[in-house]
Design goal:
- The protein has 182 residues and is mainly alpha-helical.
- It has one domain.
């Protein structure tokens, strides 16, 4: 009577002559280590990890793949950059993984986020003025709340910030692409 073989046994029997070439083995190892990058960055973005945790995880990547992983980490941090609040959190991580090529962009980002606004143009100054105007009309108290989304100038400043961030990100990505090893 014939022996019944498992699917795994059949596959192993048919592929026992196949061997990975050194290039295929290196590509698999490279892919394995680079697949860790999204998790490293996401843990930081979610607040579960500090910059030190990210650097420790990065240092566990073999030297041969570390530079590429560093570039991928920066790209992921750049992808996470969406507004000035995220920038304040992401800038220290970007600085920790930055190369000489990256530093001018990080400095521009820091200036963009912390640009000195005219105090009269700030949302807080406009909010106080709106509350004072309402108080003159007898509308006052802790329950009076004016969200910035009701202010058209707030929308304009948000749009300007978004456009400036997108332009900076596009320039930075182009710089990365031009300096990437071939």
């Amino acid at each position: 009577m014939a022996e019944i073989k498992s699917t795994l046994a059949i596959v192993l029997e048919k592929t026992k002559h196949l061997v990975l070439t050194p290039e295929e083995r290196e590509a698999m190892e490279r892919r394995e280590h680079l697949e860790k990058v999204p998790g490293i960055v996401q843990r930081f973005v979610d607040g579960a990890w500090s910059v030190d945790h990210m650097q420790e995880a990065w240092r566990h990547i073999p030297e041969a793949f570390r530079e590429e992983a560093r570039r991928h980490i920066l790209q992921r941090l750049l992808d996470a950059l969406s507004d000035e609040h995220a920038a304040e959190k992401l800038i220290p991580a970007m600085e920790a993984f930055a190369s000489q090529v990256d530093m001018p962009y990080i400095q521009r980002l820091a200036r963009l986020v912390t640009q000195d606004m005219d105090p009269e143009q700030s949302w807080e100054a406009r909010r106080r003025k709106l509350l004072a105007d309402l108080a003159e009309k007898g509308i006052r108290g802790d329950a009076v709340h004016i969200p910035p989304t009701l202010d058209p100038r707030w929308h304009l400043s948000q749009r300007a910030m978004h456009d400036a961030l997108e332009a900076l990100k596009a320039e930075w990505r182009a710089a990365h692409a031009s300096t990437a090893p071939r």
